[in-house]
Amino acid sequence: MASDRTQLRSRFREVIATEAELRAVLGYPGDKATAKVVRTIDEYSRRFIAASPFLLIGTAGHGGMIDVSPKGDPAGFVKVLDETTLAIPDRLGNARLDTFRNILANPNVGLIFLIPNVTYTLRVSGKAVIVRDPDLRQSMAINGKPPAHVIVVDVEHVLTHCPKCMVRSGFWQPDKWPDVTDVPPFAETLAAHAKLADSLEDLSELLDRDTREKLY
How far, in Å, CA of 41 to CA of 81, rounded? Predict the structure, then answer.
């Protein structure tokens, strides 16, 4: 790992190695940026989470490899159990269990909640466990189907993230969305990465059926 990093550094002339070097260029955060961190899910954070249908969860495994996984459901799918506890249902997936395996090895998680057409985001950090309590799972059922597991997060750190990145990207502005005609279809990318022998037509049909029939 260290040798890989050394090789990467060798490709560039000016590589930052200390926080002091960063501060020399970027300075220090103002009072507002520093003071906005809270330690609980307060009323404002709760209202944001209640309106969010999508989040990203970051985890790290034994070897330090970082994974970021998307989670989505109808708005309010993440339950605020109390001011320091969140519950995230785990729906049907591909059984890779990347997030779960990482949490078992390292409980630290980071979440980013997004709301369509809202330019700021909510960041939450804490420690997670994986639970199967029947009452909790049943309270998160959709179409009569409860999640098999729930990720429960002990919240330690909450802050809002300013809108600049969303504004710069034009993320919620259709007139600024990029041309995606050159983006390969999911089936084509999956076939190439997994070296599958299936025809693209058959694979596309399989993926479409899986999406239609196995959401919950």
Answer: 10
pLDDT digits (tens, 9 = 90+) for 173-189: 999 999 999 999 999 99
Do β-strands 149-161 and 85-90 pair in parallel, antiparallel, or remain unpaired?
A: antiparallel
- pTM of the predicted model as reported, rounded to 2 decimal places: 0.93
DSSP per-residue letters across 80-136: EEETTEEEEEE----S--HHHHHHHH--EEEEEEE-TT---EEEEEEEEEEE--HHH
What phi and psi values does residue 40 have, to the nearest 5 degrees? -135, 165
| Whole-angstrom distance, CA of residue 157 vs CA of residue 162 | 16
How far from 71 is each of 51, 79, 89, 92, 93, CA to CA, in Å?
14, 13, 9, 11, 10
pLDDT at 3: 67
CA atoms of 17 and 14, how far apart (whole Å): 9
Strand positions, DSSP E, the chain: 54-60, 66-72, 79-82, 85-90, 108-114, 121-131, 149-161
CB 91 within 8 A of CB 73: yes
**Nearest 10 degrees: Cα torsion 90, 93, 95, 96:** -90
Tokens of 199: 């025809």
Q: Are 145 and 216 in contact (CB under 8 A)?
A: yes
